[in-house]
Amino acid sequence: xxxxxxxxxxxxxxxxxxxxxxxxxxxxxxxxxxxxxxxxxxxxxxxxxxxxxxxxxxxxxxxxxxxxxxxxxxxxxxxxxxxxxxxxxxxxxxxxxxxxxxxxxxxxxxxxxxxxxxxxxxxxxxxxxxxxxxxxxxxxxxxxxxxxxxxxxxxxxxxxxxxxxxxxxxxxxxxxxxxxxxxxxxxxxxxxxxxxxxxxxxxxxxxxxxxxxxxxxxxxxxxxxxxxxxxxxxxxxxxxxxxxxxxxxxxxxxxxxxxxxxxxxxxxxxxxxxxxxxxxxxxxxxxxxxxxxxxxxxxxxxxxxxxxx
Length: 309
Fold this sequence. Notes:
This protein is about 40% helix and about 20% strand. It is α/β, with parallel strands linked by helices. The strands form 2 sheets. Strands 1, 2, 3, 4, 5, 6, 7, 10, 11 and 12 form a 10-stranded mixed sheet that branches. Strands 8-9 form a two-stranded antiparallel ribbon.
């Protein structure tokens, strides 16, 4: 645990609300909500925000998990908007506990919520905390072990991705950003940082929010002993042109929003190198449409073209 003037002694765990944003997630909800139903965290409540699903997600949840609170959105507000709906609901009732934003394509092993919450409670400098996230298809391999954001190069990446979990350290540490796949928030974060930027159509919302936490004076704590399993890219596909296009658009929006003018000369060089490498990798794999999407996303964001997804 990070030590210093911000550290404090463990105490009773505060109540915890888990907000799960769902859109047509019938294929994954059983594992996610089932794992949460097995949790023994004291004071736990689960809120599912449904983004106007057209499958039977809502009916299935009401039938199999009647204890889950359901908030219905009339339209698909996507991840950021769904999270905001849940956060606004909790703020309106003056919720004073912790809030975990959790993807619907995850599984939470027993005890992970307590370890994650305890670490956040014991480090007053941290306004948010993240668990180690491993591939659900290969739990011994890491998908996220802390987020890294290059202050000058603008590269945003996961630490430890695809590494063997047993080879990585277990000590908590502060990181640059927390993935929205599983992001635990202190109430101070909601009070001082506010809601997510829904201008991020898909991807980038968590990196943007993390940078806003840091700018407001908070820190983000990564807790490797807390584990979440993730069914990676169940929604849009691991290397689909749509995913790459969305990521490119959101990344450009993130750079324009947070990087000051004096960083742009080096930033531009680094970004061209990164995007070129990304595009060439897809060409080498024979994914020509995906390679084109790397650049098309940037161009569409610069031009301000409307989304049609």
